[in-house]
Amino acid sequence: MVTLKIDGMPVQVPEGATILQAAQKLGIWIPTLCHHEALTPTGGCRLCVVEIQKGTTSQIVSSCVYKAEEGLEVQTATEKIREIRATILELLLAEAPGAKVLQDLARDLGVKPVKRFAPRDELCIACGRCVRACSELVGVSAIGLANRGYEKLAVPPFYERAEDCIGCGTCVEICPTGAIKLIDIAEGETAVAADGRTIQGPARIIENWKVDLKLRTCKECGEPFAPENQLDYFSKEAGLPKDFYDICRHCRT
Amino acid sequence: MMKSSPLTHLEKLEKSGQASLFPNRIKITVGCASCGIAAGAQAVLEAFAKGIKKHTLDIQLQKTGCGGMCHQEPLVEVWIPGKVRLTYGRVDKEMVQTILTAIQKDAVPEGALLKTPLGAAAGICCEDVPDSSSHSFYSKQNRVALRNCGVIDPENIKEYIARDGYQGLALALTEKTPAKVIKEVEKSGLRGRGGGGFPTGLKWKTCRSARGKQKYIICNADEGDPGAYMDRSILEGDPHAVIEGMVIAGYAVGASQGVIYVRDEYPLAIERLKIALDQARKNIILGTKVLGTDFSFDIRISRGAGAFVCGEETALIKSVEGECGEPRQKPPYPAVEGLYGCPTVINNVETLANVSAVMAGGAARFSAVGTDTSKGTKVFSLVGKVNNVGLVEVPMGITLRDIIFDIGGGIPGGKAFKAVQTGGPSGGCIPAHLIDMPVGYDELAKTGSIMGSGGLIVMDEKTCMVDVALYFLRFLEDESCGKCTPCRVGLKRMREILEDICEGRGTAKDLSLLEKLANTIKDSALCGLGRTAPNPVLSTIKYFKNEYQAHIKDKKCPAGVCRELVQYAIDKKTCIGCGACVKACPVSAISGEKKKAHTINKKKCIKCGACSEICPVGAVLT
Amino acid sequence: MKLPRKNKVDTIIAQYKKDSGTLISLLQDIQSEFGYLPKDVLSYAGQSADIPLSKIFAVSSFYHSFSLEPRGKHTVSVCTGTACHVKNAGNLAESISRELGLDKDEGTSADGIFTLKKVRCLGCCSMAPVVKIDGDIHGGMTQVKAGKLLHHYRKDSK
Predict the structure, then answer these.
(1) For the structural domain made of B377-460, what CATH number should be given?
(2) Which of A183, B129, B508, B533 has the fewest Cβ atoms nearer than 10 Å?
(3) What is the pLDDT of residue B2?
(4) Which ranges in chain B are annotated with CATH 1.20.1440.230?
């Protein structure tokens, strides 16, 4: 176990726990964006930064990756930290002005849009949660963060159909800004794909990854419920019998 | 008891190296580093080979590395046995003939720039040629890391050994424990030459005591600072100095594997390294029994793929591992957790070239040079608006004035010195009034710049400091890995504001917004690239605020650089009516009669600068 | 993929597996062979070497040495290092771009003969501004000299 102080309050956490986890234990709120408890933290958005003191040296670090150390002193809301958070949010607001999570954070931290930053109409803020989820949780690594610098965005390989996507929708759930668009169309409905093809329902369309996948229809209730690819992948990974996913979860119970 | 001591093994090679270094016949060396080759050294080398063959002359001809006088490339040296070696500059095919003809007549070829005696017992020769020790370019230099560059054949390990090469390693293996080696390096006061200035001995100590069976030594040869080519010159001119440094480091920290991470843009350096590594293996300097001892060490090369950020330690590690070069937060530091999660020492090329010198000559000799906090010497690439562009190595503590005006020969065209940029994109501009400051890590940091890897870009009155800030921002924006918000987004927004300023759209609030963004990025970026990215902007605002104000308030560029704020015009008094500008203009915007003053049609003019470039009398004004 | 092409890629992959190479070294070998990184080759290589295509694309698009588009017969690299910048490399690069009929700073000319790239620092600062065409470095460049040089290479290409 390791004992450290956050905002003057002592807290004990197991070795390997991060400052963020220690703060959460104390009920101290630190804003986050690229962090998700189910994923390996990367510390990129820098919204969760805190000031740490070790002896005479102080440093600004992402609390979601920094491992708690014995005797560490952490400040989560100094003036410097507040200024940093505000500026980072100003920058992100101009990137994705339509993102509710950013609007909420801005309201909570008293931040307003900066007129000098011409807004970009791009909901993806390159936090990488979808990429990490696809790789670590789902295991198919269908998408990635391409390019470097300002053009860094979550994209399908070569900006073409992500062939390895199974349509599970984990990325949609985990994206903090709602940048990933997923729609299911029913039997008899049609839609037009990015390349001009007509997609016949029942199908799942994930626009960002240029993917459209046929949905399997439940043998019992006749409702389409999940992409064929997803069900095939899950049954293979879990070693389930072939007909396991012939009926949907509602009919299974 | 060892079968054969490491020192006896080297003795045999040393004899052979001496014979090659100091043959009993005339030797001619041609500077064949990338800069020499770019200036035409390959053709010079071939011309010598042809001439020697044609007249069946008994001359030893070989390649050498960069001697430092890059403004005089192609450089050739004629070694007269038992006497001197004479340096000739700007050698062309005609001069090759002159040299060979003189040698055939047993005469000393005319036109030498300087001479260097071959040993203490050297006979007197060429009294009219200045000695290198008193020549203005070399007299204030002290070549330690560059000791062999331009002297030895970089593709011959024996010549390296003949000049005390691998002596340091042999001494370390025979007389010192790893802990003693670390103590020696600590005592020397050597600090990282890549830019960070971190004490090398301390880094090694940390790695030695870190937990882990497998440890690594990485040589950072990703020299990314534009205008800096110190490391390239060492790798092309004296690769063994770096290899020796790595093996010593491996012995000291307990690492058995080394990696040299070289920039993709340095193909000749990679080639010379491959040859050197091969020779090192053949001579048991690398392998399972280094110099016959139980110590095992080998090195492989890892090529970069065009990313400045991979000069940052943690990004470099990711690149060696084959991934995108994205840095991670530190701690943990690579000395504790590095390549493949193992304790790793990452040292710069110049640092390692100094290590081999420290172990061979001792810490006391090394630390006798320099200042209290910056020991030893530093290699600088002196470039930009300076007469004697080249690679120089000077003792720490020397002043910028000494470097720029004495060694560098001052500013060409009689223009006024304005500033010198140090530390590359992570550094700042030091203005003229600080030119007498001593060069050292802490001293440079106090001005708002950094030592950096050693690029010294000299700027004159015709350099716009706001344009320089914009240049660096564009560079950093292009090289940002994109992982963290402050750098990825913040630099872009800073660049937008600077572009507005340079194009006449700056507003009164811009400077304070720039400073606010700069301070946030400085405090909160994830890695060193981001945290130092605002330095060029902050330092130019600090020392050249009047230029910023001129751009913002008056919509003028005092240096005449920023395109939107200047007008090209021909000075009627100076123009000789030669018509060169008319031919050069891509949009036919210039007109005029022969031998009469020409004029530029401002409406057609696209401000490309072609006319200004070609005018033989400097009649084009902005 | 046609057989000769497939064989070339198979050889590269076999070497990569033998050397325990990295994804970067694999991509460098592919680019050495094909002049750039063709999509079909990357796809096939990913399957053979068991590397997700998303990762291949992430690494290929991160590093500027890699080109995902075919390059022209000659690569023209204008050094835009600081020493060259203060000697008007920016204007020089623009003039070459104009000469090649490009609408951007970098790209391949319509006739496929030249690909223009701005590179960071070639380390030949004593000869600033510097332009490299394929393996040859040309120093002391001016806009007029550059135009003549391109003309010379273009004539040779015919």
Answers:
(1) 3.10.20.600
(2) B508
(3) 45
(4) 465-552
Q: Tell whether C67 is within 8 A of chain B (Cβ).
A: no
- Helix (H), strand (E) at residue B157: helix B157-162
List chain B residues with CB under 8 Å of C23: 322-323
Nearest chain B residue to A86 by CA distance is B520
CA distance C59 to chain A (A): 8
Alpha helices in chain A (DSSP H): 19-26, 79-95, 100-109, 129-132, 170-174, 228-238, 249-252
- For chains A and C, CB pairs below 8 A equal 39
Instruction: Give the distance from CA B430 to its chain's centroid.
Output: 19
Write down the domain spans for chain C: 3-62, 74-157
- pLDDT tier at B9 (50, 70, 90 boundaries)? confident
- Least confidently predicted of B4-13, B348-357, B598-607: B4-13
Domain with CATH 3.30.70.20 in chain B: 567-621
Contact C40/A at CB under 8 A: no
**Secondary structure of B186-217 as H, E, C letters:** HHHCCECCCCCCCEHHHHHHHHHHCCCCCCEE
**C interface test, pick of A138, A141, A163, A165 with most C CB neighbours within 10 Å:** A141
Note the CATH number of domain B7-117. Answer: 3.40.30.10
* Complex ipTM: 0.95
For residue B385, which residues of chain C lie inside 8 Å, CB to CB?
A: 86
Distance from CA of C118 to the nearest CA of B (A): 11
| β-sheet bridge partners, residue B84 | B117
Cβ–Cβ under 8 Å, residues B219 and B352 = yes
Interchain pair A145, C39: CB under 8 A: no
Q: Which domains does chain A have, with CATH numbers?
A: 2-77 (3.10.20.740), 79-121 (no CATH), 129-252 (no CATH)
- CATH of range B465-552; options 1.20.1600.10, 3.40.640.10, 3.40.50.300, 1.20.1440.230: 1.20.1440.230
pLDDT, position B276: 98
pLDDT at B188 over 80: yes
User: Phi and psi at residue A225, in whole multiples of 5°?
Assistant: -135, -25
The per-residue pLDDT for B204 is 98
Q: Are strands B216-221 and B344-348 parallel, antiparallel or unpaired?
A: parallel
pLDDT tens digits for B196-241? 899 999 999 999 999 999 999 999 999 999 999 999 999 999 999 9
Please state the rounded mean pLDDT for residues B418-436.
96
Whether domain B164-366 has CATH 3.40.50.11540: the reply is yes
- A133 CA to chain C: closest CA distance, Å? 13
Assess whether pLDDT exceeds 70 at residue B283: yes
Query: Hey, which CATH number is domain C74-157, 2.170.150.70, 3.40.50.2000, 3.40.30.10, 1.25.40.10?
Result: 3.40.30.10
Picking from A34, A237, A53, A236, the residue whose alpha carbon sits closest to that of residue A137 is A237
Which amino acid belongs to residue B319? Answer: S
- Judge whether B608 is closer than 8 Å to chain C, CB to CB: yes
Chain A residue with Cα closest to C52: A141
Q: In what order do the strands lie in the sheet with C74-79?
A: C107-108, C114-119, C74-79, C131-133, C136-138
The verdict on a CB contact (< 8 Å) between C125 and B609 is no
Q: Which pLDDT band holds residue B4 (cuts at 50, 70, 90)?
A: low
- Asked if the C-beta of A150 comes within 8 angstroms of chain B's C-beta atoms, the answer is yes
Contact between B401 and B386 (Cβ < 8 Å): no
Q: Does domain B567-621 have CATH number 3.30.70.20?
A: yes
Average pLDDT, chain C: 93
pLDDT value for A63: 98
B64, pLDDT greater than 50: yes
Q: Quick one: which of B156, B174, B338, B311 has its CA closest to B248?
A: B174
pLDDT in tens, A224-240: 999 999 999 999 999 99
Q: Do B586 and C98 touch (CB under 8 A)?
A: yes
